[in-house]
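Reviewer 2 asked us to include a model.

Predict the structure of this chain.
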Amino acid sequence: MKERNFLICLFGAIAAFILRSPAADLSQATIRQKVNVVTVADSLSAKPHPAESGAIVKTENVVRTGSESRAELEFTDTTLARMGANSLFSFDSASRALEFQKGSLLFSKPTQSGRIDVRSASVTAAITGSTGFITKLEKRGQAYGLQLPSGTQLLGMLEGRARGTAQWTDPAAASHAFPFTLRPGQILIVIPEQIPVVVDFDLPTFVATSPLIIGFRGALLNPDEMAAALKDYRRLVADGFIEPATTPVEPVDERPLLVGDLTDPSGKQVDVSTIALTPVASMVGVALPAAAIPPPVNPKRFGIIRSNLTWAAKADLDLILRLPGGKQVFFTTPKLVFNNGKATVFVTGGPTIGNGQIPPGPGSERIVVRGQLPPGKYTFTVRNVESPQVPVTYQLSVAGFGKTLIQNAQVLPNQTSAGLTIQPPKK
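Predicted model (structure tokens):
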């Protein structure tokens, strides 16, 4: 079991955080920058009127941008909201929520500030002192390097974290809830009639090229946290946990295989083993995570297997790899060299808000295996080390050698999940 600090440390930390964390103030916003057509209306049904820089936007007002247009709003607590073209946005001061309707929106909130919610038709996420974006595709096309169908919603984080729930409907019209936690460099993708997935994106490329950043004057908030997020991303790339894509990658023949059952909080259950995700093509500028399609490799010379475990509940889960021959690797062994020095296992991650919380908070763990991989089975399982006496919902993805396996399932306290297994192809 992972180390825990005493509860008194936790209470002291919480008290200190509360004392220095003012409540979020979304009582009104000022249009600080505008390009081309920007309008404001009292409500969704009210007639919009042109808005100029310096205009005041009040709670429940609706801001719209036209084609080739954009706007930046600054709230009383200095939170920024940057709108891309053809976007529609409002906010609710009473519930401290940013209400996203369509288009694209980047939000940047000061560190150590109170919580606000980011809401759309399918996604609700809580953020405190974070920078991220949300997008909804009105028609089929590319978004952040992905070819996606119309109606797809994406929520991504640049720095800080977001925790929330995505609502999705399966092909049989049954509704389900998908809890998620996002760290910097991750996107939640909600495709109509498919289980949501969390994948990585190329964080440095996004920061350097996104119109939501370079299309506006002035810097975003939290520069130190952004720099730390970029440094962590580059470390993950260097260790092999993320493979940035700089050229289009052709989709593999196999569709990602979904394995296991998912029970949502309402108690409904869906067999996800019969639902396939659409292969993703043209992955330009997008990191290839375990939940996406891996780059092609020559198994005779070099192999790589990536796995990613995420969970949103208060729990301590371990991602465990069983190598050919039976040896197990998990968080206690951050690095293991095997096959006579020709292959290496790297492990990273854990609860995102552990360090004294009992049980710890949501989190993620990753294992990557690379090098000259010996033949045999590489099996990944999930162990529930500690949680309240309820099952914990998680998403586990394993990718390698042209296959991507995704397991949406639950695991009870002190229990281990069924495994996902990948084998190198025979020479």
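The first helix runs from residue 7 to 19. DSSP finds four helices and 34 strands in the chain. We have added this to the supplementary material.
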